[in-house]
UniProtKB/TrEMBL annotation:
The keyword Ubl conjugation does not apply. SUPFAM superfamilies: Carboxypeptidase regulatory domain-like, Porins. The keyword Membrane applies. Residues 131-251 form the TonB-dependent receptor plug domain. It comes from Fodinibius roseus. InterPro entries: Beta-barrel_TonB, Beta-barrel_TonB_sf, CarboxyPept-like_regulatory, Plug_dom, Plug_dom_sf, TonB-dep_rcpt-like. Residues 375-872 form the TonB-dependent receptor-like beta-barrel domain. This is Iron complex outermembrane recepter protein. GO terms for cellular component: cell outer membrane. It is found in: Cell outer membrane. Belongs to the TonB-dependent receptor family. It is a multi-pass membrane protein.
Amino acid sequence: MLIKNHIFGSLFIAVLFFLYLPLESRAQQTATVEGTVVDRATGEGLPGVNIRLLDTSRGTVTGRDGRYSLEIPAGEAELRYSYIGYESRIETLTDLSPGEVRTLDVSLTSSYISGNEVVVTGTRSGGRSNLESAVPIDVISVDDLDTRAPQVDVNQLLTYVAPSFQSNRQSAADESEHNAPASLRGMGPDQLLVLVNGKRRHTSSVINLLGGKRGTVGTDMSVIPTASIDRIEILRDGAAAQYGSDAIAGVINIILKEDTGTLSTSATAGVYREGDGETAKVNANYGFALGEEGYVNITGSFTNREPTNRTGDHDLHVYTPGFAYPFDQNPEEARAADNAEIQARGKTRDDFKFHIGDAGMQIASTFVNGAVPVDDRGTEVYFFGSLSNKQGTGFPFRRLPVDGGNVPEIYPHGFQPLTKSSITDKSITTGIRGEYRGWEIDFSNSFGSNAFDFRVTNSVNATLGASSPTAFDVGGFSFSQNVTGLTFAKRFDRALSGINVAFGSEFRIDNYGITAGDEPSYRNYGIADSVSNGIEVGKVDTLGRTAGSQGYPGFRPADEVSAARTNIAAFGEVEVNLTDDFLVAGATRFERYSDFGNTINGKVSARYLLGRFLTIRGAVNTGFRAPSLHQVYYNKVSSDFNDNNRLVQIGTFNNNSRPADLLGIPDLTEETSINYSLGFTLRPFQNVSLTTDFYQIDVEDRIILTSEFNVSELPGNIAGELREYGVSAANFFTNAIDTRTRGVDLVATYNQPFANGSQLNFSLGANFNEVKVQGAVETSPQLEEQADLYLQPWDRLRLEEGDPQSKVSATLQYDIGRLSAMVRGVRFGEVSLNTGGAFGEPQTYSAKFVTDLSLTYGLSEAVDLTVGSNNVFDVYPDEHLYANSYFNVFKYPPSQHGFNGAYYFTKLTLNY
């Protein structure tokens, strides 16, 4: 109800704003401009050049031969021609008569990939060249990548082309198996802010509890179709003073397509060398005009990805007692006896292998982006939104026949449960922007939600015995966010060399919920009253069997949550061009949260141009990240392995719970940060560039999910109460550590056209990164004797070295005629992990070099065929040490570039 009232209120304000602007709509007569856009050096037509009528939403793109045609108002007009890898150009037309058809041929000068593009992220001044920005910003053209690259979703694409970005799929990791978290500069997924068209996008409802990036909440970018994206801008610098919470590591701004008049479709099919993980993907994008200057661009996408399996040959007993123990008494004799029992039952050892690999996934998404001018002064109503659904199939640990969670009457040979997810993601942004007395005004409202419904099949509740169902609704999560914003911006040209001023306000409402599963998914039916001398004295477990649905116990009614919070923000920015070469910028932002109070942050940055060849830039900023509602309110009892590698019930209790109160766990507060960056851009030649940026990010009061506290080792009164929750271990979210991240980003590009019409593009990117925990871990007095469990050595290792500490990516593309060849090599640096916990040992996995290769041929003016491979040389990570493999179940870590080997694909693309 709170969000509904807020939306209606926002719409009412929007109407008032709409009426207040001087909207002097009037019909106008039009003229037509047409021509060809070519490469200045070669004279070849350039396909896909974006042509935009300045101060309007009207525009078009060139066809394969570089030709274009655009209807524009008669009189005077300015057209901007922009294309990735080329210098943008503005042409002015005058004295256009109604009905006139004027020819305007344009040649563009080759720049270099992402070299001098106008960016809008990190500034509200209307955009500037990324070479002239005061902080590092990458510009990635997705259209070209979507045609040639083997990767099929945004997370994969960015992992291979943006060295400071990393995303790994998880295996046997509950909810995280259905939602790959992503990070920037080795920070957490929740320290990276994602925008769409400059507006904050909602996060996932899922919190990552197992696998990498433990205890964090990120934004699910996999549901954004690559076909809907024009470009991605990555701001590699703290920006909380500009955009608010989460922007500690940086900002990713996804800019949607505005094209009209072109139908773009593609179909992709691929498979791993092992013969699994078959992937099929189809995309369609089309834009059409609304009236004379408006547009609507619509994208539909469907992806089907089958699961993979890269398990090892496990050393677990199958039909003999002692599940979760290896053959440690007499391995050869024990294994022989076990194999004899397996053979006697008509089975083979392969029948009891675990399924460890990527989850299966089906993703259907629709995105729309549009704008409608409402007068001849550039005022427009704009809108964009999405609707998507993901259906996933994950693979928890296999239950062998002797496991206490098995019911032999149902599964005489054991079973591997399946987790089934249904994730619905929705968003809608509407707004109006225009000019009033020189001020650019933008009023908008953005609503987004993510709902995660979870089921477990091929499972059992052992406490029900043979009467147990085999499929369970285990409950789910929901998260929604509504943001209303109003921004004013103006440039004062006569002050110094120009001053840009912007200010505004935002109001946000977040909602988080957990819903319970059905009763058999969580209940222990063996619990009975304990009676002494006719008096009930407590509860006892009469069966001693694992309760709830195996693979993922359901949420109990006591776990249900429906929580909300609000925050209001006010911000201001000033960019002062002291001279044409010297820019100084400052920003400040105040926010008030309903649950933890106020925060104020600031940023100062500067850039100095030394001629047209060298730019020096630097920034200092403070930042913050509000604890997510997920971290504040999440409750769950789940199955995991304890220090003895036994499968046990572990409770994650929120900070408002009785267990948290017993153990002195304080309320969560915001993380705070200070970020320093210093770098330069060098352009010694027209077609060569180099950028280098050093950074340091200090985060205080960083929120972690603690390791598991053993209930039996807690004081008697506390242990007694916790046992009533049916758990043998417990963990919590708490502000416990400080971290320091240091590193350097390097980007080099080279672009060379040749006289025969061919073109060579080369880009090199590198990130070298180090994350370290600073000082002592902060503990509660009640847990001082178990202080080492706040951040176990293996959790510290995962935090500090679980992402590649270096990554180097080199891409070479050569185009000649209808043929285009692309080769990319990525060196993923070493990582260190201890996936076995107390049972394992630290292991360093060596650096790996992965090669992508693709060949694209234009079958006709409208059709391209691409064939290629990701990881063409079939490179795998180092195998686990035995101690880290859970008795050989896990063969590879889910780190660096993944563990699936070579992937081959073919793609057909149509542009008409």
